[in-house]
């Protein structure tokens, strides 16, 4: 007799022997998730910060300067961007389903190169500490995403 209080089981994770997919496609997909997620997060963070600043008495004309001077906004933006890089590394590692660390590392390198290229073509100057922190943490953040995928694969139940 089965236990009526136990829910029926169904595998919800990828099987351990799932086939690997194209690594270049995985890197592009992970990079797109990183950049797209960062853009969405930046828009949301700027909107919330703007609302808070205006309600605190900042003139709407001075919002850009207030955001540029706010260390809290810069730290939140850095943390959000790195979180999106972790997600991009995870997505790339999950899609490729093989060489998770190498795939996530490649996403980090591409994100780092893209970020530095964007710095060359923008008129805004980032704080030296924020640029250094971003450059030093972007690759480890992507590799953390790959590590999360490795942990998830290791926790997948064996097929019966």
Description:
Helix 3 packs parallel to helix 5. The mean pLDDT is 86. The protein is an all-alpha fold and 160 residues long. It has one domain. It is 72% helix and 0% strand. It is built from five helices and no strands.
- Say what oligomer this is: single chain
Task: Note the overall shape.
Answer: flat
Task: Name the beta content range.
Answer: under 5%
| Spatial separation of the terminal alpha carbons | 20 Å
How large is the count of helical segments?
5
How many structural domains are formed by the residues?
A: 1
Q: What percentage of residues falls in helices of 4 or more residues?
A: over 70%
In short:
By secondary structure, the protein is mainly α. Helix content is 72%, strand content 0%. The chain has one domain (23-155).
Topology at a glance:
Blueprint: H1 23-55, H2 63-69, H3 71-96, H4 100-120, H5 128-155
Helix pairs in contact: 1-3, 1-4, 3-4, 3-5, 4-5
């Amino acid at each position: 007799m089965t236990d009526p209080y136990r829910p029926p089981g169904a595998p919800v994770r990828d099987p351990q022997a799932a086939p690997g997919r194209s690594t270049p496609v995985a890197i592009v997909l992970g990079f797109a998730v990183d950049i797209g997620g960062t853009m969405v997060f930046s828009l949301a963070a700027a909107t919330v910060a703007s609302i808070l600043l205006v309600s605190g008495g900042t003139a709407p004309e001075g919002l850009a300067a207030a955001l540029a001077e706010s260390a809290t906004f810069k730290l939140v933006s850095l943390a959000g961007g790195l979180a999106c890089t972790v997600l991009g590394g995870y997505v790339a590692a999950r899609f490729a389903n093989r060489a998770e660390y190498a795939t996530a590392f490649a996403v980090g390198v591409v994100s780092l190169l893209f970020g530095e290229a964007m710095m060359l073509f923008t008129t805004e100057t980032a704080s030296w500490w924020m640029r250094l922190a971003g450059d030093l943490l972007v690759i480890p953040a992507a590799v953390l995403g790959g590590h999360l995928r490795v942990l998830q694969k290791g926790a997948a139940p064996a097929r019966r």
